[in-house]
Amino acid sequence: MSKKMRKKSSKIESGTAVRAAPAGRARPSQKAGGSSASAARKKPRAQTVTSPPESLHQGTQKPLKAAPAQKPPTKARPPRTDTKAPPRSTGLAEGSRVPAFDLPRDGGARVSLSDFAGQKLVIFFYPRADTPGCTREAMDFTRLEKEFARCQTAVLGVSADPVKAQESFRTKHKLSIPLISDEKHEMLDAYGVWGEKSMYGKTFLGIVRTTVLVKEDGRIARIWHRVKVDGHAEDVLAAARRL
Question: Based on the structure, what is the number of domains in the chain?
Answer without folding.
Answer: 1
